[in-house]
Amino acid sequence: MSITNHVISTNARIILASGSSIRADILRGAGLNYEVISKPVDEAAIKAAMLSEGSRLRDIADALAEAKALRVSRQESGFVIGADQIMVMDGQLFDKPPTIDAARQRLKEMRGKTHKLMGAVVVCENGVAIWRHLAVTKLTVRDFSDEFLETYINLEGEALTKSVGAYRFEGPGAQLFSHVEGDFFSILGLPLLPLLEYFRTRGVIPS
Ligand SMILES: Nc1nc2c(ncn2[C@H]2C[C@H](O)[C@@H](COP(=O)(O)OP(=O)(O)OP(=O)(O)O)O2)c(=O)[nH]1
Questions:
Q1: Please, what's the b/e burial string for 75-97 (b: 16 or more CB within 10 A of its CB; e: otherwise)?
Q2: Where do the catalytic residues lie (predicted)?
Q3: Residue 10 has what pLDDT?
Q4: Does the predicted TM-score (pTM) go above 0.90?
């Protein structure tokens, strides 16, 4: 993503509690002045506990986003943003692929099918969750050739392991899809527009 560094005045401290580079790029590209403070959260434990209780997958994304934001908000002042995104296909939950080969297998599994991305964002202040939003996007992967897949994988490499869907929609990854339903920023990992609207209602950024 081509990112400008044109900041629109921000009247409060904004912290992104995420190690995700694309989330940072999205906030910076939108002209927000923010800091990144990310602290570890045992996502696997939260996910496993909620799955064993039969929680809805969207609630898992929300709980993870809240846990990430709370972990930082308990120690830092300001508006703390936590986010989490899960991929769902054929009723199954997928995490980020651990290796390039796992990404290859995942993309082959996704070929010709539609999957959902459930993206949660939670804002916390002084250790309390004060706002939340969930965006569900639907993406239909075309029946791409093995040759295209190898070309794409060689182009993106390790970046595919940083994305829950094993693609980067903002780049040549767009060529994987025949149809998407939902918001561009939510696909990338941060439901930006509802978040900006919330910050405007709180006077953090100008209306
Ligand atoms: N560049 C790019 N990244 C994507 C795309 N779709 C999903 N992602 C990334 C956004 C997130 O970094 C990641 C989803 O995983 P998580 O929600 O667990 O976040 P992550 O572990 O990366 O960071 P965090 O837990 O917030 O520290 O997938 C895309 O189309 N392009």
A1: ebebbbbbbbbbbbbeeeebebb
A2: 84
A3: 76
A4: yes
Residue showing tokens 């990144």: 36
- Tell me the average confidence (pLDDT) per consecutive run of 10 residues in the chain, 207 residues long: 67 95 97 96 96 95 98 98 97 95 98 98 98 98 98 98 97 98 98 98 94
For residue 169 and ligand 1, the question of a CB distance below 6 A is answered with yes
Query: Looking at the 3D structure of the chain, how many domains does it have?
Result: 1
Q: Is the CB of 189 under 6 A from ligand 1?
A: yes
Q: Report whether residue 73 contacts ligand 1, using a CB cutoff of 6 Å.
A: no
Nearest Cα residue to atom 26 of ligand 1: 18
The answer to whether residue 4 sits within a structural domain is no
Ligand 1 close to Cβ of residue 115 (< 6 A): no
Of ligand 1's atoms, which has the minimum distance to the CA of residue 25?
A: 1
Residue 1 domain flag: no
Compute the distance from residue 12 Cα to the ligand 1 centre, in Å: 25
Dihedral (CA of 103, 104, 106, 112) sign: positive
Is residue 6 in a domain? Answer: no
Residue 54 sits in a domain of what CATH number? 3.90.950.10
Say if residues 74 and 65 touch (Cβ distance below 8 Å). Answer: no
Instruction: Tell me, in angstroms, the distance from the centre of ligand 1 to residue 192's CA.
Output: 14
pLDDT given at position 8: 78
Range of the structural domain that residue 23 is part of? 14-202
In-domain check, residue 9 = no
